[in-house]
Design brief:
Elements: H1 2-19, E1 82-87, E2 92-97, E3 101-105, E4 108-113, E5 116-124, H2 131-136, H3 138-145, E6 150-158, E7 163-172, E8 184-194, E9 197-206, H4 212-221, E10 223-224
Antiparallel strand pairs: 1-2, 2-10, 3-4, 4-5, 5-9, 6-7, 7-8, 8-9
Amino acid sequence: MKKQKGMLIALILVFLLGGCGGKIETKSPKISTTLPPASNLYTIAPPSQSPSSSPSSSPVSSDKPVPPEKNPTGDISDSQVFINYSSVKGGYSLEVPEGWARKEQEAAVDFADKLDGVKVAVESATQAPSVDSIKGTQIVEMTKTGRAIKIDRIQEVSLSQEKAIKVSYSSNSEADSVTGKQVRLDNESYYFYKNGKLAVLTMWAPLGADNIDQWDKMSKSFRWDIK
């Protein structure tokens, strides 16, 4: 009897295994190969960029005079037309080249054409300047903050309209923003005083340019419009 039961159980097992092909399947979890959205990924930032390899601007006081141009451009044409410019805030007027770019700020004005320029700045002063006072104040500041300033002459002058202290000097221009090139400039500054105001008229052009007559015309045209 026990033998018959054992045979029956064996037959049932064979039937069951045969129906399943004799294999037992196990399900393994699926592994997704899809990456998460980019916004959820960690990114490695590029290394911070080092400062530009180009040399930084040197202190103005360390500038060395650059060689003058062999054939400098900057002559104001003999046919240049001049017009009268008047500053209400500054209380002065003078003749300036027509067509030059103009920039105004309060009592100051700046006219420029390529490497040529004319500007007037006004400040308060307690007394009229002298050659000695200009040497002890303005010249000291000029050589400290200017670019390779070389003073040629300081003198008192009597112009057709006013008296002034005239300073003739050379300097380097500002470096070109693209090429970095500098040009040696010829400069003339005139210091005019009246009733607590000091006006400084400055004209510049590439060293060697011929603007004697034009600069003479502008400096002689300066006049105070204040009492």
